């Protein structure tokens, strides 16, 4: 054969494959999303997300310990309040669920890094991410509430806040509120490029946050749009976002790769609840190899440009990375 270039030479052994790998993963870039809820002695498995639980504040430390032992150092907190109202007032209550969880978590596990999801949908009786004017989710009147939520999280100890509501202008509103109270150094990770996705289905079961009417298409992005992702990313950068997130992950790797190429801040990708549940269901049925699927999804996301990866598989993945089992 007259062939001098043979790509297979660099695939011959595990050692050479590892050496030439283009994508490397590090457990320091993982964020584990977890759910805290009002009540006591609760560790309740989420029906649609086998292996994921809702914890009351007294049981949460046991999970934080497992997270830390697994080698994961970042946690994203979601709160499920005991009562909801029209305006989501529990979201910024000083003794709200996330605020109490944060104080306890920081006291017991000060070495973990705590990020909070800033949104209203888990706290409003109607399940939308903002204040309603009639049936419309009103943008500008929601901004003040989002700023209040973020500020109350930071006052309770959040190291970083992550607005996920998709109102226009919320990054600036939050930045202004934090700076006005002296929190100049607390970064904002914006869910900048967040699509109106069916992949959030299991999360809405987990957090009881499904909208009671309509959908989120008037504020979350249309999955048909790719260039608009860059518009959202650019706007959030102008408003002071420190980290940009693309969400979901697997179906939006093209968008992730664009955002990575066109911006110069760290880019996060969120492998959402539906991605987790599909893997769990398929693995349970014996249709796929769970470990290999977890690793391949993660590698694809990093390869597309993620610097940071939010995943319900963070603990497992940290283990696979540590043991060198990836790929
Ligand atoms: C809150 C929020 C959602 C998710 C993260 N923050 C739900 C939604 O927008 O409906 C989804 C996370 C997941 O599915 O894992 N707005």
Entry summary:
The protein is of the alpha/beta class.
Tag the structure with descriptive keywords.
12 strands; alpha/beta; 327 residues
Topology:
Blueprint: H1 14-19, E1 30-37, E2 43-45, E3 53-56, H2 60-70, E4 74-80, H3 97-108, E5 113-118, E6 131-133, E7 136-138, H4 140-155, E8 160-163, H5 170-180, E9 189-194, H6 201-207, H7 227-238, E10 243-247, H8 253-262, E11 267-271, H9 273-284, H10 290-304, E12 308-311, H11 314-322
Parallel strand pairs: 1-3, 1-4, 1-12, 4-5, 5-8, 9-10, 10-11, 11-12
Antiparallel strand pairs: 2-3, 6-7
Helix pairs in contact: 4-5, 7-8
The structure holds ligand PBG.
Write a structural description:
The strands form two sheets. Strands 1, 2, 3, 4, 5, 8, 9, 10, 11 and 12 form a ten-stranded mixed beta sheet that branches. A two-stranded antiparallel ribbon has the order 6-7. Helix content is 37%, strand content 18%. It has 327 residues and is of the alpha/beta class. Helix 4 (140-155) packs across helix 5 (170-180) and helix 7 (227-238) crosses helix 8 (253-262). The two termini are 31 Å apart. A hairpin with a 2-residue loop joins strand 6 and strand 7. The longest helix has 16 residues, at 140-155. The structure holds ligand PBG. Residues 117, 119, 121, 129, 164, 200, 203-204, 272-273 line the site of ligand PBG.
């Amino acid at each position: 054969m007259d062939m001098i270039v043979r790509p297979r030479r660099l695939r011959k052994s595990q050692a050479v494959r590892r050496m030439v790998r283009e994508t490397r993963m590090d457990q320091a870039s993982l964020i584990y999303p977890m759910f805290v809820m009002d009540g006591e002695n609760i560790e309740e498995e989420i029906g649609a997300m086998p292996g994921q639980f809702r914890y009351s504040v007294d049981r949460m430390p046991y999970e934080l310990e497992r997270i830390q032992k697994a080698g994961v150092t970042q946690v994203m907190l979601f709160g499920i309040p005991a009562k909801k109202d029209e305006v989501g007032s529990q979201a910024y209550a000083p003794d709200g669920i996330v605020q109490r969880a944060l104080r306890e978590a920081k006291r017991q596990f000060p070495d973990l890094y705590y990020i909070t999801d800033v949104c209203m949908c888990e706290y409003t009786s109607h399940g939308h991410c903002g204040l309603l004017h009639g049936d419309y989710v009103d943008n500008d009147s929601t901004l003040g509430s989002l700023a209040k939520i973020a500020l109350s999280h930071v006052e309770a100890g959040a190291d970083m806040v992550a607005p996920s509501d998709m109102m226009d202008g919320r990054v600036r509103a939050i930045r202004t509120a934090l700076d006005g109270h002296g929190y100049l150094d607390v970064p904002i990770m914006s869910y900048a490029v967040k699509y109106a996705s069916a992949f959030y289905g299991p999360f809405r079961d987990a957090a009881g946050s499904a909208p009671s009417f309509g959908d989120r298409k008037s504020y979350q992005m249309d999955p048909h749009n790719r260039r608009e992702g860059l518009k959202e990313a650019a706007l959030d950068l102008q408003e002071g976002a420190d980290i940009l997130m693309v969400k979901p992950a697997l179906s939006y790797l093209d968008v992730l790769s664009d955002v990575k190429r066109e911006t110069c801040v760290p880019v996060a990708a969120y492998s959402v609840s539906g991605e987790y549940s599909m893997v769990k269901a398929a693995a349970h049925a014996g249709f796929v190899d769970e470990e290999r699927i977890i690793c391949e999804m993660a590698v694809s996301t990093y390869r597309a440009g993620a610097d940071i990866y939010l995943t319900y598989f963070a603990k497992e993945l940290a283990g696979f990375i540590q043991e060198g089992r990836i790929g």
